[in-house]
Amino acid sequence: MYEAIEVLQHHKAKLEKSVTLNNGVQLALWRNSHARVNFENTQHHTFSMYVEDGYESYHKRSDGWFNGGEPGRFCLLPKESISSWDIRGNLRFIHFYCSDEHLIQLAEQTWDKSLTSLRLDEKVFIGDNQLQLIYKNFLLEPEWNDPASKMMQSSASTMVMLHLLQKYSHLNWKLPKFKGGLAPHVLNRIKELIRASLADELSLSILAHEAKLSEYHFARMFKDCVGLSPHQYVMICRLEHAAKLLKDTPLSVIEIAVSCGFNSASHFAQQFKTKYGVTPTRYRLG
């Protein structure tokens, strides 16, 4: 467990939900109010986005308490940093936890350079439009523990960490350029793996490993071939398979949902209606 979770639970913050991705990165959605919280020397990085309220959240600086919280604001607390917070109202926020090892491994795979140490900059109450889009479109998706959601989450976690490395670290490395897509035999192998794993958790790292590429290079080369990001393509495959099962089998809607990677019938219905314009039940009736 990441230390920040223990700190927040000690200060009576309510953990609404959390998920640990296959790479060890963890997301947590919290709610807190009227509390003083101190973070000291955690051995991991904490990246936070305010989701609701937060207008009465104060951060202690050398010259006193500073307020600047509101929905969409971010705070970055690097490992071993020390900070004090006074939550004088209500606050709902999402935390993204990762380690030096996560960031260094991603940097070395992406840039093909050796990196022995890493330094992130502390940031408080900042605005970042690019990260806000990632959080809202991917990390605030309602069903975190569905296998169907893990592909999107793993892709988003990679995007978040690459953004941290580029914008909030001491590195000054531009993202590498690439030319062309995947070799046909590699693309076919990836598609076969996806079709065989629709009921299971799929992640960007699993597909990238199969292609023997970094996650960054794989995602861009896959999109160059298919015209869709990996998580978009996987979701379409799940839904197309579900549509076929609805027409060709007597399986119940919930059985079809589970066989296509959805543990939640409501999440399945929502995604299905987005693609086909009707609910699964209505689709089956024609």
From TrEMBL:
InterPro entries: AraC_XylS_family_regulators (IPR050204), Homeodomain-like_sf (IPR009057), HTH_AraC (IPR018060), HTH_AraC-typ_CS (IPR018062), Tscrpt_reg_AraC-type_HTH (IPR020449). This is Transcriptional regulator, AraC family. PROSITE patterns: HTH_ARAC_FAMILY_1 (PS00041), HTH_ARAC_FAMILY_2 (PS01124). SUPFAM superfamilies: Homeodomain-like. Residues 188-286 form the HTH araC/xylS-type domain. Pfam families: HTH_18 (PF12833). It comes from the Bacteria. GO terms for molecular function: DNA-binding transcription factor activity; sequence-specific DNA binding. Keywords: DNA-binding, Transcription, Transcription regulation.
